[in-house]
Amino acid sequence: DTMEEEESGWKLIHGDVFRFPQNSSLFCACVGTGLQLMLCTFAVLILALTGAVSTTRRGSILAGCIVVYCLTSFISGYASTNLYLKMNGKAWTRCVLLAATLFPLPVASVFMVVNTIALGHGSTSALPFGTIFTLTFLYACISVPLCVFGGSMAKNYGKHDFNAPTRTTKVAREIPTEVPWYRGKPFQMVIAGFLPFSAIYIELHYIFASMWGHQIYTLFGILLFAFILLVIVSSFITVALLYFQLAREDHQWWWATFVNGGMTGIFIYVYSIFYYYHRSGMSGLLQSSFYFGYMAAVSFGFFLMLGSAAFYMSLAFVKHIYGRIKCD
After folding, report:
1. What is the DSSP letter of 324?
2. Helices 144-157, 73-86: crossing angle, 10 deg rounding
3. Alpha carbon distances (Å) from 252 to 20, 21, 258
4. pLDDT at 36
5. What mean pLDDT comes out for the span 209-215?
6. What's the pTM?
């Protein structure tokens, strides 16, 4: 009985756990972009905390985010391509292009729709052509070249050995389909999003009041602490859920850990819907399009950031536990 218990669960799938995921180029682009956004957020919060970016003038933090994002594009290109080549990927240029467009393209699409509605209403919140040209120039001439340069550096100078502690078998092991509902992926996704969200729920109210109300947010020290707490909590909860997934002999953990980690972003968007109808006092097409459009972009950013952090933590965990067992 003891022997059977030791060999049951996660140990049985040692030959499949390092089988690389489907759509690896998209997966690597998501991870690299999430890492860039996370470091970009840390940088902006530290700049706001030290007073390098004005927190009292509206638009200064947003401008800081855009500049820092463009300057950190090297990170997404390098991280995405390096991970992709470790997965024995061949089309690294495709991975770099995905990393360069994965976040800016949806944000630009939201902006075009929202700005068109604002122009149609004759609103002063519509950005002029000069500002749009400047943003396009920053993206095309700084962000994209830096991302491509990062990918090129990863290809030529990065370490491309995955160093998996166990060998991967040629034939994939069948995944058990009959599992209790509380151990299934949908329920785990809800848990993975709700628990970290509950840790930042109180702070979210003040952030929303600052973003969409007429209040000025100044507690950037607390916000930095809350963001670090969010990253840590979501990563550890994802690792705990990953262990339960491996214990039920489900070796397809790559996308699962990324999605579980990023579920808090979905919860933030759900909370934004609640805030709009019960706290904001907004109405009309113009305000609705601005609010839901840009909140979708912010939530997508959080999804990528937290998913990336959770994946890196999960990868370290999986390598550690399978490195401790001796497999024939």
Report:
1. S
2. 40
3. 9, 7, 11
4. 97
5. 78
6. 0.92
Mean pLDDT value across the chain: 89
**In angstroms, rounded to a whole number, what is the distance separating the alpha carbons of residues 298 and 283?**
20
CA distances from 67 to 73, 77, 108, 126, 194 (A): 10, 17, 16, 20, 32
Smallest CA-to-CA distance from 167 within 18, 6, 299 is with: 18
CA distance 131 to 115: 12
261: pLDDT strictly greater than 60: yes
Mean pLDDT of all residues in 259-264: 96
Closest CA to 20 of 162, 160, 156, 159: 162
Q: Residues in the chain, how many?
A: 328
Q: Is 133 exposed, middle or buried (0-12, 13-18, 19+ CB in 10 A)?
A: exposed
**Whole-number pLDDT of residue 110:** 94
Q: Who has greater pLDDT, 216 or 252?
A: 252
| Tens digits of residue pLDDT in 100-140 | 999 999 999 999 999 999 999 888 888 888 999 999 999 99
